[in-house]
Amino acid sequence: MMSQMSPLFAALWGRTLPCMQVERKPFGAPVSWWSRPSLVVIAGGGILLAGVVVWVLGPGAAWVLHHLDGVKGLSGKDEADALDAIRGRVLTVATGLLAIVAVYYTARNAHTARRMLEHSEESARRTAQLTEQGQVTDRYTKAIEHLGSDKLDVRIGGIYALERIARDSARDHATVIEVLAAFLREHSHDDDANAPAAADELERDPDAVGWPRSDLQAALTVIRRRDPRHDTDPIDLSRARLRRSDLARADLTGAFLGHADLRGAYMAGADLASARLVRAQMAGARLPDAKLINADLSYANLTGANLTGADLTRANLTGVDLAGADLDGAILTDAIGWPS
């Protein structure tokens, strides 16, 4: 019964979804101060250049003409033209230097703006990611609360909410499936895990039971239709009591089903390749066309089971009870413990 939260769900409160673990990294490596020209040097150079220009535009032009150009003895208009030419050259050089500095700062500002935009986009992306992960965490917490409810419809809602989380977040898929498997392992043993069998069924078998409780079958349905590509470990339903459950076409490759009670279960077309079914109770189970390649069925009870068309290639059938089982069309190539 589920009148109060079980130890399983008390433990699940502390279960951390992968999406809750957020690694924070800096947006970019810091730029060292020596990777940029010193503003002091640039400012000093600018002042020096301005001083030289002012000096040359004034009395310095004559000094340049006499000492650098080596021209002397000019007078009147000739000297004036020569001085004007020197001043023109200086202005041209100064203008070129200023243009180079302007281009450099324009390029640097463009680079800085681009880095700021990249950082802004990265920040926005991380913020959106954190928001999404926070929403998934909230949904997971609420779903676990519902899973521990004593009301059947609330538990079913919690199960399908977990399925939605598994579909929306591949990184949380494995955690959700593990939670549902744990739910089944524990609560399939509840006193009301199965409905009472019909009167005629009880006449034939006093130990008969009815269909599984709706929340248990819902959890099995979610596991049955999950995307196995996101599994990290095989499904663990060992010792679960899954009588008359519907697992048709379920992908249970490598699943742990040792000592599980699968009497009367419907498993048509299920993929149980390499599954561990040691001592599983499968009397009356229906497994037509099931894949049991390399499955370990040692000492399992398969009395009266329907195995028509099942593929039991290399399956371990040591000690299996197959009394009354229907093996019409079953493939038993290299099956261990089967008479050749």
Total number of β-strand segments? 2
- Structural class of the helices, strands and pairings? mainly alpha
In this structure, how is the largest beta sheet organized? Answer: 2 strands, antiparallel
Mean pLDDT: 83
Topology as H/E string?
HHHHHEHEH
Work out the radius of gyration: 41 Å
Work out the strand percent: under 5%
Distance between the termini: 48 Å
Q: Largest sheet, order of strands side by side?
A: 1-2
Structure description:
The chain is mostly helical and 340 residues long. Among the domains are: 38-133, no CATH class; 145-218, no CATH class. It is built from seven helices and two strands. The protein has a two-stranded antiparallel ribbon. Helix 2 (39-68) packs antiparallel against helix 3. Residues 22-35 have low confidence and may be disordered.
Give the helices and strands, then pairings.
Blueprint: H1 7-12, H2 39-68, H3 76-147, H4 152-168, H5 173-187, E1 194-196, H6 199-204, E2 209-212, H7 214-224
Antiparallel strand pairs: 1-2
Short description:
The chain is 46% helix and 2% strand. It contains seven helices and two strands, in the order αααααβαβα.
List keywords for this structure.
two-stranded antiparallel ribbon, single chain, 7 helices, 340 residues, mainly alpha
